[in-house]
Automatic annotation (TrEMBL), chain A:
Organism the protein comes from: Anoxynatronum buryatiense
Family annotation (PANTHER family): ABC TRANSPORTER SUBSTRATE-BINDING PROTEIN, ARABINOSE-BINDING PROTEIN-RELATED
Signal peptide as annotated in the record: none
SUPFAM superfamilies assigned to the protein according to its UniProt record, in alphabetical order: Periplasmic binding protein-like II
Keywords: Sugar transport, Transport
Entry-linked Pfam families: SBP_bac_8 (PF13416)
Name by which UniProt lists this protein: Multiple sugar transport system substrate-binding protein
Residue span of region Disordered: 56-76
InterPro entries recorded: Bact_solute-bd_prot1, SBP
Automatic annotation (TrEMBL), chain B:
Matching Pfam families: BPD_transp_1 (PF00528)
Organism per entry: Anoxynatronum buryatiense
Transport recorded as keyword: yes
Main location: membrane
Location of the protein in the cell: Cell membrane
Protein name: Carbohydrate ABC transporter membrane protein 2, CUT1 family
InterPro entries linked to this entry: MetI-like (IPR000515), MetI-like_sf (IPR035906)
UniProtKB/TrEMBL annotation, chain C:
Record-given protein name: Carbohydrate ABC transporter membrane protein 1, CUT1 family
InterPro entries membership: ABC_transporter_permease, MetI-like, MetI-like_sf
Recorded superkingdom: Bacteria
TM region positions: 7-32, 70-91, 103-124, 152-174, 205-234, 254-279
UniProt GO cellular component terms: plasma membrane
Keyword rRNA-binding found: no
Localisation per UniProt entry: Cell membrane
ABC transmembrane type-1 domain mapped to chain residues: 66-278
Record's keyword terms, sorted: Cell membrane, Membrane, Transmembrane, Transmembrane helix, Transport
Biological process according to GO: transmembrane transport
Chief localization: membrane
UniProt lineage: Bacteria, Bacillati, Bacillota, Clostridia, Eubacteriales
Family named by the database record: Belongs to the binding-protein-dependent transport system permease family.
Membrane topology note: Multi-pass membrane protein
Length: 480, 273, 289
């Protein structure tokens, strides 16, 4: 039936056991196959030539914007507006906020037009997209990027430093919170990018559920142990009411948060040693695993499911970014409370609290001086008080400018009406860096650490095995 | 006789239940898409929404470039299918009608391309596309898959069934190569071409992995890639997500309903003839 | 017999050129890259011999990936074939509504894997998903489908079967319709029971179709990608990471071109050997008929 017909010539050959044509046929077909292969190889030679040329082009000139730059540079600079592309990760209401900022910029002048686009998959998805576009020499003119990839943006993708523009124009940065500016600097203090939508981790609580469990609401828990006790008291695992949720879908930000609030650190580049599996890291795993396996208050679900549950009133607490503020406020029909992170071990002064900053910087990507300068114009607009107000009000992220939240600032009315929105600023003084792994391996390291957590959550490994195994792998990857 | 009718009922019962089970993912998608935002998970008899709303659809059409994706899909799937049919007819004619040096290994090669998963060369193919500067372009999506082993194979099977006498008669009448192809083969192969065309159209419409890799701008995406991107993973909005999925499936279902007999026919006639 | 005409070559030229550039060449190219370390962003390329393959062999994730893929294929394929055959026989038993059943059974094949995956991702939701809701009605606590290793792979297998078995039903129906009616009439006269007819006549006669179905289902199961990418991203802890997804992840997420091309080469060669093997078996099998 089916394969019998593959070869209509063959049946004849099978009947005539002796087949004088076949051997010759074979040889000839061989020759043709060789010919096809030769053609393919010839084509391959051509294309690989192209590849190498392109590669050397990229190496020589940095990279250009490929198809997104329509031969504008060839003609004498005309009155045609420059169109810039701008990538971000925000969808839904947060994308509308982006739209508002971009629209505001486009309306403010007629020389430059910015077109924004959302890339799915959060910072990881955006990083993947940027790398692909860099290889295809189609980098956007502007992009945001999660703070954990700050070094890679500069070293791996060649983000254009804004420092020369600041110096040239004598841009006044005094209004920015200094520790937010730091987030966009390199180790030498050069301002590579501007802080854009910054966040800190917060504990969002369902006050109604807390009250039902007879727990008094406080602004800041004394310790993570206390948080665990609350979860234990308020959750009803059998009825589908979870105690707490964490978001470990895309990155290890919350792990770092806990490690640092237990007094530890991720790693040290000076001594080239990994520290996330030291005692504080192990305590984080114990903390999670106790709640998950023994007390049943922390269900093993994705962060987006946890957020969904929290909004639906089936989780008492969730540890999440400031960036969820607007979403939670808009969708939760219970009394929403926001707590600051506890400090280390109940003893306020034993270790300074460190709160790793989350969120993103705004980067200018390499193209040509004219486009880069145009991009800088947008950066200035997007970090202006007006744009900052949109970021705070419509997205929930933090303002990078002090003046916004001052008594007479643009946001004073909003802050008065939404006292929760001020909570993040209360831990601002403790703001630290989101850990950047050296080199190009950030995505892989994040991924293998998340795998390790999952293995412990699934009881495939103990918390200690999981962390030590991950540390060993990271050590190998980094060659430490 | 009575017992026969009884087994008949049993068979129908089993088939009916299975048919419903098969449809559930689709029904569920439609049902969620019609739900009220506030009551997504309040179901009546598990699957029916308690309150119906078109809000999800409104949101899809307003907040996503859905129509853009739709036309992109029409364009990409249309070009691919037309190209695959054209090249398929030419190649199938060569394999069915002529015996030439290398016809055996070449046909075997075509069969192999049909079976070896294209995903295996996903990354190197991407680098080739990139060398041509075709990342993020429609030619990058279309050109590499213009040759379809399936189309060649099925059309050849069909051409083989056409009596040689017709062919020879046409030649005696003075037709040559391409004329024979047109007057004899193409004309009698219309049903097969429609079958292959519809099947390839649906396949091309649904393609996910290659489009995902090549098309990077959301404005350029096709429907399957677009609707997945539209799902905001940070906080999944089920109602609009399912509305987008439902809308993306409708064109294919319409084609399938209208051309149903061709879908089955193609397999009866050729696939395992 | 062999034509001297140039026409067939002309006819095949576009197709073969495309195959050369977009099928044969990428494979060779991939082979070439797999022996080097290539930093895409800087363009630096150094020859590293078999280091990538060694790294691949040492990667516990890759080992897990192969295990998962085999597990997936070995469960999806047989179930899909058996269900396909079973329902084809059942549908052919009916007199009315044949067309309706064929129509419904084929629907999953035409629905895009993207839309289907989105729907299944909510069906599998541990709290709100229909599956667990139904299970809780009969007093069973459903699994945390996509967040536990075993159930996550099972979830993908179920989706894979749902997607593929309708196609097999149609192929088997086509095969059954081709069977010679006279043999059955003779068998009826000989008084063979329906069961004997099935095992002695129908199944052996259908064996070429079965082989074809076997080949197609096996190969398409090996290609599983979209469902993984949309539903689980290979998680939890790589429990659903499979070959194609592994290549995709190494290539486009970690940008490790060496490892990605080495894995792609392994996948390509494995499927090619599998294909050739199966084609040979099938060809041999058919001759006996």
């Amino acid at each position: 039936m089916f394969f019998k017909d593959i070869n209509p010539i063959n049946p004849i050959n099978h009947v005539n056991h002796v087949n004088p044509i076949n051997p010759i046929n074979r040889m000839k077909s061989f020759r043709l196959a060789a010919l096809v292969l030769a053609v393919a190889l010839f084509l391959s030679a051509c294309t690989s030539g192209t590849v190498q040329n392109q590669a050397s082009d990229t190496a020589a000139t940095g990279s250009d914007t490929g198809t997104s730059a329509p031969a504008a540079s060839a003609a004498p600079v005309s009155t045609e507006p420059i169109t810039l592309t701008f990538l971000h990760v925000f969808s839904g209401p947060r994308e509308e906020a982006m739209n508002e900022i971009v629209q505001g910029f486009n309306d403010s002048q007629d020389r430059i037009r910015v077109e924004h686009e959302m890339v799915p998959g959060w910072y990881g998805g955006l990083l993947e997209q940027l790398q692909t576009l860099a290889v295809a020499r189609q980098l956007p003119d502007l992009t945001i990027m999660g703070l954990s990839s700050h070094n890679f943006m500069k070293e791996g993708l060649g983000a254009v430093s804004v420092q020369p523009y600041i110096e040239q124009e004598n841009t006044d940065l005094s209004d920015f919170f200094p520790n937010m500016l730091t987030l966009g600097q390199d180790e030498q203090g050069e301002q590579i990018a501007m802080p854009f939508a910054i966040s800190t981790p917060l504990i969002y609580v369902n006050k109604d559920l807390l009250e039902q469990a007879g727990i008094d609401y406080v602004d800041q828990p004394e310790s993570w142990e206390q948080v665990r006790e609350w979860a234990k008291k308020a959750a009803q695992p059998s009825a589908g009411l979870a105690g707490i949720g964490f978001q470990l879908d895309y990155d290890t930000w919350q792990f770092q948060t806990l490690v640092e609030s237990f007094g530890g650190q991720m790693a040290s580049q000076e001594t080239q040693t990994i520290h996330f599996n030291d005692e504080p890291g192990q305590r984080v795993m114990d903390f999670w695993l106790t709640m998950m396996h023994e007390e049943g208050t922390y269900p093993n679900i994705s962060g987006s499911e946890a957020a969904e549950n929290f909004i639906n009133g089936s989780s008492v607490m969730i540890v999440a970014t400031t960036g969820n503020l607007v979403n939670f406020t808009a969708n939760a029909d219970f009394d929403l409370g926001i707590m600051l992170l506890p400090t280390y071990d109940n003893m306020v002064n034993r270790n300074p609290r460190r709160v790793p900053a989350g969120g993103s910087n705004l980067y200018i990507m390499p193209s040509d001086p004219e486009r880069e300068a145009a991009a800088w114009e947008f950066v200035k607009y997007a970090t202006s008080p007006e744009a900052g107000a949109i970021i705070v009000e419509k997205m929930g992220y933090m303002a990078a400018r002090k003046s916004l939240i001052e008594p007479n600032g643009l946001l004073s009315a909003y802050m008065a009406a939404n006292p929760q929105a001020t909570r993040s600023y209360d831990q601002l003084e403790d703001l630290g860096n989101w850990y950047n792994w050296p080199g190009v391996h950030g995505a892989r390291i994040d991924s293998l650490m998340l795998d390790a957590f999952a293995a412990a959550f699934l009881k495939e490994k103990t918390g200690e095995e999981a962390l030590n195994g991950a540390a060993e792998e990271v050590r190998q990857i980094l060659g430490w | 006789m009575n017992q026969h009718r009884l087994t008949g009922w049993w068979i129908h019962a089993i088939l009916m239940i299975t048919a419903i089970l098969i449809l559930i993912p689709f029904l569920w998608m439609v049902s969620i898409s019609l739900s009220d935002y506030g009551a997504v998970f309040q179901r009546f008899l598990l699957i029916f929404p308690t309150s119906v709303s078109l809000e999800g659809y409104r949101q899809v059409l307003e907040n996503s470039p859905f129509m853009r994706w739709f036309f992109n899909s029409v364009f990409v799937a249309g070009c691919l299918t037309a190209g695959q049919l054209t090249l398929g007819v030419l190649a199938a004619y060569a394999f069915a009608r002529y015996r030439f040096k290398g016809s055996e290994p070449l046909f075997f090669f075509v069969l192999c391309t049909m079976m070896i998963p294209p995903q295996a060369i996903l990354f190197p193919l991407f680098m080739v596309i990139n060398a041509f500067g075709w990342v993020n372009t429609y030619q990058g999506v279309i050109v590499p898959h213009l040759a379809s082993g399936y189309a060649i194979f099925v059309l050849r099977q069909f051409f083989l069934q056409i009596p040689r006498e017709l062919d020879e008669a046409a030649r005696i009448d003075g037709c040559h190569g391409f004329q024979v192809l047109y007057h004899v083969y193409l004309r009698s192969a219309v049903p097969a071409i429609i079958s292959v065309g519809l099947i390839q159209l649906v396949r091309n419409w649904n393609d996910y992995y290659w489009t995902l890799v090549v098309l990077r701008d959301s404005q350029k995406m096709t429907l399957p890639v677009g609707i997945v991107a539209f799902r905001d993973e940070t906080l999944v909005q089920w109602v609009p997500t399912m509305a987008a999925a439902t809308l993306s499936v409708l064109p294919v279902l319409v084609i399938y309903v209208l051309g149903q007999r061709y879908f089955v026919q193609s397999h009866v006639h050729s696939g395992i003839k | 017999m062999v034509t001297r005409s140039k026409l067939p070559y002309l006819l095949l030229f576009p197709t073969m050129t495309l195959y050369g550039v977009f099928f044969v060449f990428p494979f060779l190219y991939s082979l070439f890259i797999s022996f080097s370390e290539w930093h895409l962003l800087t363009g630096d390329m150094t020859f590293v011999g078999i280091q990538n393959y060694r790294q691949l062999a040492g990667s516990h994730i890759f080992k897990k990936t192969i295990g998962n893929t085999l597990m997936y294929v070995m469960t999806t394929m047989p179930v899909s074939i058996v269900l396909g055959l079973m329902y084809a026989l059942l549908i052919e038993q009916t007199k009315k509504a044949k067309a309706l059943y064929r129509f419904v059974f084929f629907i999953p094949v035409v629905i895009s894997v993207a839309a289907a995956s989105l729907s299944f991702s909510l069906l599998y939701n541990a709290r709100h998903g229909l599956i667990n809701q139904v299970m809780s009605l009969v007093g069973i606590q459903g699994p945390n489908w996509l967040n536990e290793s075993k159930s996550a792979l099972l979830a993908l297998v179920i989706l894979g079967i749902w997607q593929s078995f309708g196609y097999n039903v149609i192929l088997f129906i086509a095969g059954i319709q081709q069977l010679d009616k006279e043999i059955y009439e003779a068998a009826a006269i000989d008084g063979l029971s329906p069961f004997t007819r099935l095992t002695r006549l129908t199944l052996p006669l259908l064996s070429p179709v079965t082989f074809f179905v076997f080949v197609m289902t096996t190969l398409s199961s090996f290609q599983v990608f979209a469902t993984v990418q949309i539903l689980t991203m290979g998680g939890p802890n790589n429990a659903t990471n499979m070959m194609v997804f592994f290549v995709w992840q190494e290539a486009f997420k970690f940008f490790n071109t060496g490892l990605a091309t080495a894995a792609a080469t392994v996948l390509f060669v494995a499927t090619m050997i599998l294909t050739l093997l199966m084609v040979r078996i099938v060809q041999r099998k058919v001759h006996y008929q």
